[in-house]
């Protein structure tokens, strides 16, 4: 299992959290996503290693800004 933490700016409510979770869950190889509004992060569990660019693109397409992928 591969784990990644994504820093996200622009989320203000639970609707934003769901939007980001759904966008990330649509990526191939994503097993689980947990978005934390207060910490402005998404913890991801992956079955395959996704590039930071793919993760960033999914979040940005949902309307939010990625500050970090680690």
What does this molecule look like?
The chain is an alpha+beta fold. It has a single domain, classed as Alpha-Beta Plaits (2-Layer Sandwich), CATH 3.30.70.100. The chain is 31% helix and 37% strand. The protein has helices spanning 14-25, 52-61; strands spanning 2-9, 30-36, 41-46, 65-69. A hairpin with a 4-residue loop joins strand 2 (30-36) and strand 3 (41-46).
Primary descriptors:
70 residues, 4 strands, alpha+beta, Alpha-Beta Plaits
Give a brief outline of the structure:
The chain is of the alpha+beta class and 70 residues long.
Order of strands, main sheet, comes to: 2-3-1-4
What count of domains describes the coordinates?
A: 1
> Mean pLDDT, as a whole number?
97
**Secondary-structure element order, N to C:** EHEEHE
Helix content: 25-40%
* Distance N to C terminus: 15 Å
């Amino acid at each position: 299992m591969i784990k990644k933490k994504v820093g996200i700016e622009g989320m203000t409510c639970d609707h934003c959290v769901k939007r980001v979770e759904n966008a990330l869950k649509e990526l191939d190889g994503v097993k689980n996503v947990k978005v934390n509004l207060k910490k402005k992060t998404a913890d991801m569990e992956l079955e395959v290693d996704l590039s930071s660019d793919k993760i960033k693109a999914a979040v940005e397409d949902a309307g939010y800004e990625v500050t970090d992928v680690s």
